[in-house]
Amino acid sequence: MAPDANTAADFRDALLRVGIDTVRYFTNSIDGLPTFVPELISPAELAETNYDALIDIRAKSEFAAGSIPGAQQLSGGSAMWRLNELPAGGTLVTFCQSGARNTVVANALRRAGFTVIELEGSYAAWEKSAANPKNLQTTV
After folding, report:
1. Burial of 14 per CB tally in 10 Å (0-12, 13-18, 19+)
2. I need a labelling partner for 97 at 20 to 30 A (CA). Which of 3, 44, 59, 131 fits?
């Protein structure tokens, strides 16, 4: 949903960056349309959540600069061509830097038959959270 043509153009540009290049229309209201609320977990819930793979959909360079321990890198733009690298029938937890790319890729993975849980706030939220070992405070 976009309130105006300029915002729609911004959305289209974001979709182009993740490989969706056929955007023709926009709407300024979702009244009457079916809605979907994805399953989300917070960074604090990640350690207690059952999943088969933790998927970092950021670029290889972003992944190399740091990621959540145990994450597998699967660039958003190539995710649909690399489905064979994911556990068949498994539950995936996905994240990107801030959540925008993740939403697009998570929806595509759902359409491909995967159960997907999105990390709320993505990597940026995890980086700031107490779940990040770098943020553990010790007292002496």
Report:
1. middle
2. 3
